[in-house]
Specification:
By secondary structure, the protein is α/β, with parallel strands linked by helices. The protein has six helices and five strands, in the order ββαβααββααα. Belongs to the RNase HII family.
């Protein structure tokens, strides 16, 4: 059962999606839920079906006091590294809220202080607190939507299905066709045994 945890008024949850991918952005969501918000389906986006995530996205967008989603793309990921890019995405999502939160709940154990607003990092917070779970659903659904869009440009990588994660199919396509502008050049795209020493 997810906790509401309303120690503070206007408590925002934030989380990211796509950190371990080989292609596409890292995407963060931030959301402030009303105190009376309740939902029996809401959970960590990773344990929900695609259908449930999409259904929840509509509910969250309708009922949230404020929400925001931000992509940080491949060039910035390669420049900053994935940890810093993930934190930047969360900061930018928080920037996009129409109401400033009084406290921030962050999924995970790494974050940089957000100006003038206290925060707490919670490991596996997306399975513990409603606001973080809600942020995870927003981040996941918006990122998946983007990956399906760019799939149309490069269907051979099947991003519509793998969403840029390092599946066997995705890596085989990289080995055969090379990298696109959407791939993260700073990531090891292929295991060492698949790299040809020519």
């Amino acid at each position: 059962m997810l906790k509401k945890r309303f120690k503070y008024d206007k408590e925002a949850g934030t989380d990211e999606a796509g950190r371990g991918c080989l292609a596409g952005p890292v995407t963060a969501g931030a959301i402030i839920l009303p105190k009376k918000f309740a939902n029996t389906i809401l959970n960590d986006s990773k344990v929900l079906s695609e259908l449930k995530r999409e259904s929840l996205r509509s509910v969250l967008e309708k009922e949230a006091i404020s929400f925001s989603v931000c992509h940080v793309f491949e060039d910035e990921i390669d420049k900053l590294n994935i940890l810093n890019a993930s934190i930047l995405a969360m900061h930018r999502a928080l920037d996009g809220l129409s109401r400033a939160p009084s406290f921030i709940l962050v999924d995970g154990n790494r974050f940089k202080p957000y100006p003038s607003i206290p925060h707490e990092c919670i490991i596996k917070g997306d399975g513990k607190f409603m606001s973080i779970a809600a942020a995870s659903v927003l981040a996941k659904t918006y990122r998946d939507e983007y990956m399906c869009k760019i799939h149309e440009e490069f269907p051979i990588y099947n991003w519509k299905r793998n969403k840029g994660y390092p599946t066997k199919e995705h890596r085989e396509a990289i080995r055969e066709y090379g990298l696109t502008k959407y791939h993260r050049k700073s990531f090891r795209q292929l295991p060492k045994q698949l790299i040809l020493d020519i």
